[in-house]
Design goal:
The chain has 112 residues and is an alpha/beta fold. The protein is 29% helix and 18% strand. The protein is elongated.
Amino acid sequence: MTAALHRETSTIPIVFMLVSDPVGAGLVAGLPRPGGNITGYSESDPALGGKWLSLLREAVPRLKRVAIMFNPDTAPGQGKFFTTSFDAAARSVAIEPIVSPVRSVRSVRFFH
């Protein structure tokens, strides 16, 4: 809905709620300074990918590799929204990051 409104006007103020990746979707220039006529609230933070890995590392201290699975057709930024911080966090603690886009249950491969 916000994207449709964005295409229709650049002058009427638009306030969105719960857009996962407004920067990646091209709705705003940046979160601190959105610019233009659109602003709003996002429920997601790109740093969550790294935070999820930190929680796993705390639960399993000997963790060697971790996969993050997502549907690129529905994930914010086709998955890049969370995978950037996930990858950086994994490499900083010597864990092998596995980025695994999944479009259906049949495409899931389990790692041993």
